[in-house]
Design goal:
- This protein is of the alpha/beta class.
- 34% of the residues lie in helices and 18% in strands.
- Strands 7-8-9-10-11-12-13 form a 7-stranded mixed β-sheet. Strands 1, 2, 3, 4, 5 and 6 form a 6-stranded antiparallel β-sheet that branches.
- Helix 1 (3-19) packs across helix 10 (315-332).
- The chain starts with a helix and ends in an 11-residue tail after the last helix.
- The model has no long low-confidence stretch (mean pLDDT 93).
């Protein structure tokens, strides 16, 4: 990609990530774990999760994105509703309540939809993990057998190519990793060879990382969201009680077990962290072999952030941080696609993949 075209693409995709687009999308995600609030689209052939915003300056005509009469040079099509959504288990649980389609070919699930930190004084301000449960859109705990059943159908009917399993934090020392281990084993018995990323807080027992890898997990996400302790205390009062030293130990052990660029962490743009420090921190993660998945914070409906009036970061900030982190990733030879499974491999929630990150 030529530099001028790359700059134009980064600018356009950063604007879309913040302002969204005026269109409908059959596959969308409104609530849940993490900072998402979007429709799932394919932009220039790649996964993109964009806000569906009736006030956006961007619209879609004839499979192209326009700002008024200006064609941004980006093709777009909505991800089709998957066939597996029409199925239910023998117990009457809709498959859609067990796992969701993300992007065009990623199956995603939160295996435990509750979190010990989901009380106001501890809750991550950008997260709505239990709101989808309260709305009846999911079930509290997915069994390994349920996930295996849904994964088999999603691969067979809809061409799913990878799977992401995350979890709310549990009270045990493993923080939920042991249940993920059982789920990975069950899915791979039903669909051998399916790339799977697991997402956890740093487990108190680092040996579980080896267990997850030996069970067949392809990659692991250990998500810190910010490397600034003041920001962590403001935005993640419960999660920030886990010291950065625990994250560093978990990242290093995960890289040893899974390999370089098979470990990732979210870094959210727009939490108030200095941009230069955020980029420098991303560089240190890259040096460790950890992929820094930089994503704009979106104050979803139902979050404490939205309630308290927080707003998404500016498109200029998203462009600046994403562009600099992408350059560091390219220089190191790291790409999200090389993770094979997970958020970085999907790429939809970030702008990184559109500029070679």
């Amino acid at each position: 990609m030529r530099v001028g075209i790359e700059d134009e693409t980064l600018t356009a995709r950063s604007d879309l990530a913040v302002h969204g687009v005026r269109m409908d999308a059959p596959v969308r995600r409104r609530k849940g774990a993490g900072p998402s609030d979007d429709g799932h689209l394919v932009v220039n052939g790649a996964n993109a999760a964009l806000p569906l915003n009736p006030e956006s300056p961007y619209s879609v005509r004839d499979g192209r994105i326009f700002n008024g009469t200006i064609d941004l040079g980006l093709s777009v099509e909505p991800v089709a509703r998957p066939k597996f959504y029409d199925l239910t288990t023998a117990e009457g649980v809709r498959y859609e309540q067990i796992a969701l389609l993300h992007g065009k070919d990623v199956l995603a699930t939160t295996v435990v939809q509750t979190c010990i930190r989901y009380v106001e004084e501890k809750r991550c301000r950008f997260c709505t993990i239990e709101e989808s449960l309260k709305a009846g859109n999911t079930v509290a705990a997915k069994t390994p057998a349920q996930l295996a059943e849904v994964a088999e159908a999603a691969v067979r009917l809809d061409g799913i190519r990878q799977m992401v399993m995350t979890t709310g934090t549990t009270a045990g020392p493993d923080r939920g990793a042991r249940h993920l281990l059982r789920c990975v084993k069950a899915v791979l018995e039903a669909v051998p060879g399916l790339p799977i990323q697991v997402q956890i807080e740093p487990p108190g027992e680092l040996s579980v990382l080896t267990d997850l890898r030996e069970a067949g997990a392809t990659s692991v996400g250990i998500h810190v969201e910010s490397l600034d302790d003041d920001v962590r205390r403001r935005w993640m009062p419960g999660k920030s009680s886990v010291p950065m030293a625990e994250y560093e130990a978990a990242w290093d052990e995960a890289v040893r077990v899974f390999g370089r660029n098979r470990v990732s962490t979210y870094l959210l743009i727009g939490l108030g962290e200095d941009a230069d420090e955020l980029v420098a921190g991303a560089g240190r993660l890259i040096d460790r072999g950890v992929y820094p998945f930089v994503v704009p914070m979106r104050p979803m409906l139902g979050t404490l952030a939205r309630r308290d009036g927080a707003v998404a970061p500016s498109a200029a900030l998203v462009r600046d941080v994403t562009g600099r982190v992408a350059a560091l990733l390219r220089a190191s030879g790291m790409t999200g696609a090389d993770q094979q499974a997970g958020c970085a491999a999907c790429g939809a929630c970030s702008v990184l993949s559109s500029v070679g990150g």
